[in-house]
Design brief:
Helix content: 40-55%
Largest sheet: none
Strand content: under 5%
Order of helices and strands: HHHHHHHH
Number of helices: 8
Number of strands: 0
Distance between the termini: 61 Å
Radius of gyration: 24 Å
Number of domains: 2
């Protein structure tokens, strides 16, 4: 039975789509619909279960579940540290607004207060010129809107 396109999209968007489902050889994943070779979290969990409860050698589990040995070692460590949640991928990309430092935010607020008619595109140009940071005008608009709603800007970092 072909994989459900909706499920594949959900796995892809969550970062849990196995890029090589054709490498999975374990009978559970080839004989039943419940075990899905496209589901990377399920593969990691089942490989760990096979090693820990069935006593399967790690190298054999790697081959049967289509995973590398380093992937299984990492999964084991993550599972021991955080349980099932540890098998899910961590959020990729920046964790916060890394371009809008407290110094840049303070400059934005001061500039918009002293020049209320200043357009975001011009403000972006000024930020780039002064701080060497390229920020989209819409990002600046959002930051100023948040500041106006009462979210205080942290003070600039003092070395």
């Amino acid at each position: 039975m072909p994989p459900d396109p909706g499920k594949l999209q959900a796995l892809r968007s969550s970062g849990t789509l196995n890029p090589r489902p054709e490498n999975v050889r374990h009978p559970r994943f080839t004989d039943t619909e419940f075990f899905d070779p496209h589901d990377l979290v399920q593969l990691k969990y089942e490989s760990l279960r096979a090693i820990e409860t069935d006593g399967q050698p790690l190298a054999q589990a790697a081959v049967e579940f289509g995973l590398s040995r380093p992937t299984i070692y990492q999964a084991r460590q993550a599972f021991q540290a955080a349980g099932l949640e540890g098998l899910f991928p961590h959020k990729r990309g920046p964790k916060r607004a890394h371009k809008l430092t407290p110094e840049v935010r303070q400059y934005l607020e001061q500039s918009s207060a002293s020049q209320p008619d200043l357009k975001a595109a011009e403000l972006a140009r000024q930020v780039h010129q002064r701080f060497g940071v390229q920020v989209h005008p819409r990002t600046l608009e959002k930051a100023l809107h948040k500041a106006k709603r009462g979210r205080p800007t942290p003070p600039p970092h003092q070395p």
